[in-house]
């Protein structure tokens, strides 16, 4: 299984001020240890760099992301993400612009979303998104 890991899981995994032992973080660690295919995108990297302070945190994030392939969205991805967001909204599911783009990238690249953000679970039935769940 190839995973797309969003900001929520990375943020928990990178924190040093609290234990990060949730099932998504455990799954990420297992995937990293077994060298499974893990993908992310530059937007996740940017969000992490904006959310952590100090040169040590920045260096750790850049080091960890150096080994990951980043998916770069193209014009069609942005158009499809808007369609996904609109379809979710019509069904009463709120999905942010960036999250809709993450959904699109998962669908296009046949990836499973690894996230602690429940918005993806709500959007999944309306967008053909596969979301990892424990168990």
* Global structural class: alpha/beta
Enumerate the strands of the largest sheet in spatial order, edge to edge or round the barrel: 3-2-1-4
| Total number of beta strands | 4
Largest sheet: 4 strands, parallel
Shape: globular
**Termini separation (Å)?**
15 Å
Helix content: 55-70%
So how many helices? Answer: 7
Q: Report Rg.
A: 15 Å
Question: H/E series, N to C?
Answer: EHHEHHEHHEH
| Poorly predicted regions | none
What is the averaged pLDDT score? 92
Strand content: 5-15%
Describe what you observe in this structure.
It is built from seven helices and four strands, in the order βααβααβααβα. It has helices spanning 7-14, 23-33, 42-51, 55-66, 75-90, 97-108, 118-127; strands at residues 3-5, 38-41, 70-71, 112-114. It has a four-stranded parallel β-sheet, sandwiched between helices. The longest helix has 16 residues, at 75-90. The chain is globular and about 45 Å long.
